[in-house]
Amino acid sequence: MFDPRFAQAVIAMCVHDDNGALGIAVGRLHDSLRFRAVLEEAGIAPGVAPDAPVHLGGPVEPQRGFVLHSPDWGGHGTIHVGSHWALSFSTDVLRAIAEGRGPTQWLFALGYAGWGAGQLEGELRQHGWHAAAAHPALLFDTPAAGRWKAVWRAEGIDPALLASETGRA
Questions:
Q1: Could you tell me the superkingdom of the organism this chain comes from (predicted)?
Q2: Pick from 150, 146, 134: nearest CA to 12
């Protein structure tokens, strides 16, 4: 990967169509910001919400919050990604989590990774990415720092054997 912001990145893809792609990076955490502080900043009483970490969701709109969550909850501004997970970006989901009626599994991220029409396909042709199968258990049950290696292993690949350069035949 030529962009250091995406070195060993794990991106949960949420939208990929003719207009482009949008995903949430789930492999890195904010150093000092926690979820309850985000709720307070948004004017929402934290209630029963855990003081969960905040993920660095990507370089686009890093001040905008997203909740990547299990598909058992939906509200205004929710995009369901197959049966794997959902993405919500309204304060409805934040209030639901604070009140204890939100999704059973979730993570919060600031920012997203986005690509224009055809851009991600071009990067895939340049061997910049590996498109892995969806692994919801790794997304919600694996600590952020271990997700990159865990996804490779789930794909049947030992990450220690990966080469840093590719060739062309």
A1: Bacteria
A2: 134
Contact (Cβ atoms closer than 8 angstroms) between residue 98 and residue 39: yes
Domains and CATH numbers, the chain: 4-161 (3.40.1740.10)
Rounded Cα–Cα distance for residues 39 and 124 (Å): 37
Please tell me the pTM assigned to this model.
Answer: 0.89
DSSP for residue 123: H
Neighbour count for residue 98 (Cβ, 10 Å): 20
Angle at 14 between CA 1 and CA 130, to 5 degrees: 30
pLDDT value of position 78? 96
Q: Beta-carbon neighbour count of residue 26 at 10 Å?
A: 25
b vs e for 52-73, b when ≥16 Cβ sit within 10 Å of the residue's Cβ? ebbbbbbeeeeeebbbbbbbeb
Q: Please name which of 90, 108, 101 lies closest in space to residue 54, comparing C-alpha atoms.
A: 108
Over residues 114-152, the pLDDT tens digits come to: 999 998 888 888 766 888 888 888 999 999 999 989 898
CA distance readout (Å), 92 to 9, 74, 101, 151: 28, 9, 11, 30
How distant, in Å, are the alpha carbons of 13, 139, 152 from that of 106? Answer: 15, 9, 22
**Is it the case that residue 164 has pLDDT exceeding 90?**
no
